[in-house]
Amino acid sequence: MATLKRPLEDDISESPTKKLRFEDLKSNLDALLAVATEHHEEARLTAVDSAYDLEESWKDSEDKKNATATELETLEGKRDVCAQYISDMKSSSAFKMLQNVSKTEVNGIEKLTQDHQKLKDSMEKLESLCSDLETQIQTCAARLEKETKVAEDLKKKHEEAEEKAQEIAGLNETD
């Protein structure tokens, strides 16, 4: 009886079909690794760009916040000077004398009466200026509070973006 045996030259490990599959897989895997490396670099660059953009936005918001803080200090200084001048004026003897002019009915003090009226008008304007400064201070303080919050939020987002960029860059490291 004749047995059917494979010829010796048809070795399974050397078969063209097996070799072809290995070469295809090797080629596909090499291409996949190359593409993955490119994707990693793209992701890293995107993360770094995002972190940079957030850092710039954060710095801009810090500059804006600092400018507003300086403006607030200036307004408070002007208000304090104005309030101090009002206080000094009201405690002066000339001011008190002119205030007393309005309470008297003595004849012959028309010039003092006019001076009193001018003082009264000027003091009203000064008090109005001081009140306007107070309103500006409140508006500026509210704006500063908002700008501080924005700067803090951007700083936090920047730090998170930096961590993400570091994490993505670290994916390429081997132990």
Q: Number of DSSP helices? A: 3
Based on the coordinates given, report the CATH architecture.
Orthogonal Bundle
Biggest sheet overview:
none
CATH topology: Helix Hairpins
| Total domains | 1
Description:
- The structure is a single chain.
- With 175 residues, this protein is mainly α.
- It has one domain (26-170): Orthogonal Bundle (Helix Hairpins).
- It contains three helices and no strands.
- The chain has helices at residues 16-91, 93-101, 110-170.
- α1 (16-91) packs antiparallel against α3 (110-170) and α2 crosses α3 (110-170).
- The model has no long low-confidence stretch (mean pLDDT 87).
Brief rundown of the structure:
The protein has 175 residues and is mainly α. It has one domain (26-170): Helix Hairpins (Orthogonal Bundle), CATH 1.10.287.
What are the key terms here?
single chain, 175 residues, 3 helices, 83% helix, mainly alpha, rod-shaped, Helix Hairpins
